[in-house]
Amino acid sequence: MTLAPLTRPVRLRPGARVAVVSPSGPVPADRLEAGLDVLRGWGLDPVEAPHVRDVHPELDYLAGTDEVRARDLQEAWCDPSVDAVICARGGYGVHRMVDLVDWAAMRAAGPKVFIGYSDITVLHEAFARRMGLATLHGPMAGTETFLKDPDTQESLRATLFEPESVRTLGLPTARVLVPGRARGITYGGCVSLLAADIGTPHARTSARGGLLVIEDTTEDPYNIDRILTQLLRTGALDGIAGVACGSWAGCGPYEKVRAVLADRLGPLGVPVVEELGFGHGPTALTIPLGVPAVLDAPAGGPATLTIEVPALV
Fold this sequence. Notes:
The protein is of the alpha/beta class. Helices cover 31% and strands 22% of the residues.
């Protein structure tokens, strides 16, 4: 089955209500409050989910129990006064709660803007597979990059309010790993989470025609090799049109990461771009998922990912 464009939610306007949820790890209170201030500065009305500041009583790497994390997401989404949902941070925990969400109720509530990355990759896949909804792989409200990097903030702000102004994506660091040009539907996220999703209920079984966007953090080069090899062996990358790579923060010397990417992705025979500027790096550009895009990787030239339609309608 070839990937098709997903339903795009409506752009935000001043005064829009944005619910902040913690589906994964706990968020430091000072970072959350600073992030809420940024959103207010954009003219938005951020509201905290009831358990957004929770910490699991025994497993302190989780933001509260699986049940309350799932309930917060579902109730925020199903609240008709909420226009968008943004995650507070990633970490770990979505795989534990994703099947506790009532996805039928979420579908009935209609499309909204959803934002996050890292562990939130699991939810991006769930929104795509279970709701047919395009989402935003973008910075989260309680993360250091969002609070400190102006380019990260502006990329998200423009995508939310003026999506037609941010159709061509990529930092000057973007380089061509495998030259070529490809068109497809964007999907992906944190590559270790994509691999961990294989074999789970509702997991993606085909990505034919997809433009894969991947990044990760604190995975040694041999781990990245293992992750990509798993995706290759399961057929998860069969028929993809191209690959756009973001940051690999904390993954060891980048020349070793590049060698793994070239070794594992090069034989696919599709364009591959590196260091596009999204994910866990110092700048985290917002990348729409589930939309048609063109990956340009000319030999010796600048590399870009161009979204063919605005991320939001």
